[in-house]
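Researcher: Structure for this, please.
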Amino acid sequence: MNEAERAAVERFEREVMTPSMSSLVVLQFTASWCGPCKQLSPILEKVTAELAPQGVQLVRIDIDEQRIIADQFRIQSVPTVYALYRGQPVGDLTPYRSEGQLRQILEQLVGRLGVKGEAQALEAQVDPLLQMAEQVLEDGDAPRAENILRQVLELAPYHPEVNAALARALVAQQRGDEARALLDGLDEKTRKDPAVARARAALELASAAPVGDSAELEARAAANPDDLDTQFELAQAQIAAGDRDRAADLLLEIVGKDREWREGEARQRFLQLLEAQGLGDPWSRNQRRRLSALLFT
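Model: Predicted structure, token format:
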């Protein structure tokens, strides 16, 4: 082995093998004269840069400059792309040429191999604090939940679940304008997160709450049970008061009497109530079954 080959091996050990002990290394074999390589390179750069927080990195090997490495991998043509983890090839990425294909296969490898990057490390810090804040919020101490969540945001300012929980804490304190500004300021991708949709539903429910004497609504509703407008207004008052069970009962009663009342507004508000609670919540699942039984029997 001559000096150039020894340097290539040392570089490979430093830039590929050592990082692969903890990261997923995408190893691209290329050449200056390779047209398809030039087309693939920017795609690989973009995808690996996006997945870098998850522990993915890109290394290029020029087969003309580092022939000894290319020979060890028995490279017959370029571009050839492998994924390495803990010093071993774990995937041949050569057949994948589109951004979507490469992102999908790399995300699958990261998940299957349990690769830990900055994103996973951050999630490990954020998750217990987020769960604590959610429990505090559920227990009714919205100011304390807000304080916890604002501290978590210093660690993860773009975390969708943290931002969504903070918005719900603000809604619980009747600070709807602040919650709306927070949600409207999120980027497009974050706004599509289910947690943000839940916070938006909570905000819209709070914004629709009537202003006035709920006792007077109760009296009117009791005097005329078929007055669906009053029943609906009372349901919204119960939502504002935090009585989700009574609100759900009233909304389902309206749906049972007239499914298309106000173009299905009672049913829409009912589903919004479930979304604000969290669609995976046992209470929400039970209420959805009640709605299905009403609609399909």
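Researcher: Any notable elements?
Model: Strands lie at 24-30, 56-62, 80-85, 88-92. The longest strand covers residues 24-30.
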